[in-house]
Amino acid sequence: MGDRTIKLAVVGVGNCASSLIQGIEYYKDAADDAFIPGLMHANFGGYHVRDIEVVAAFDVHSGKVGRDVAEAIYAAPNNTTVFAQVPTTGVLVQRGPVLDGVNKYTADVVPVDEASEPVDVVAALKASGAEVVVNYLPVGSQEATEFYANAAIEAGCAFVNCIPVFIASNEEWAQKFADAGLPVVGDDIKAQVGATIVHRTLTNLFLDRGMKIKHTYQLNTGGNTDFLNMLERERLADKKTSKTEAVTSMIEARGQSIDPYDIHVGPSDYVPWQKDNKVCFLRIESTHFGDVPMNLELRLSVEDSPNSAGVAIDSIRCAKLALDAGLSGAIIEPAAYFSKHPPVQIEDREARELVEKFIDTYGQKA
Which of 80, 73, 68, 65 is CA-nearest to residue 111? Predict the structure, then answer.
């Protein structure tokens, strides 16, 4: 069984793209049976990490457009941890359309390249031979995300949506991909061990032990452009829905409910000196036997972008397996495990088993 390439196009060359591309370089020589934190398998259904090849990239930042991807991923305002030096790729970042991808808070740190016109994205995808498009646009980029989702369809690419603009979990958009005979995986990437997965796990622990969730909150702060962008609260509707439903779905699966007044999940504030570090403050209030009150408080600190990069790599490899198998529309199994707002919410342990079955069914056979 020989390795095959997954030709990847990246939309948005920010911190998350940087961690993903660094990770491909960092783990390129890992053995097929190596343990890699954040990945289900080094060899995922016949595709190794090194088989992912970036063939196209799109951004609007004047300091990134026209530069090799290997340079652009380190350019400001990117501020995530550098854990690998990526060699020159020969792939230049192309100027995409701005649409709603830059807001009043990010305009100063994301100066748009006005010297060049946006490229024809569909033609660029076709010329690059891209098979999978991964979307890393800023939260709230509804118009821009739909533009690139449509471009993926027109170019014949699978689509992995890492942000909380609903594409895979939107029936209309899922049907568009189904009609085109193309797979879509999403929405909103669920980090390796981040605020959402910890909140879901603790919620399940309480429910497993017969504890009703009376009140809960999750407050997050960070210093990357994602948090700066989210200062515009109008862009957060889908983000709050995605993060909240990731928790409430676990409660509802047990036949219980929680009033919207009693749960708050969402970004809290931008703290510049935190850079790509994200801090989560989480609280759950409940009662023991005899209605004796108790509460849990947790502080979680993670480097935001590497925390999701491995999950994105597995999502990309699932999209390629789906493409190879001729699957189309929203791909349920990987979305349920890798995304906060999948088309169907499934408890994480069960979702992982479903992904293993997906690999067994659609992966390359020796």
Answer: 65
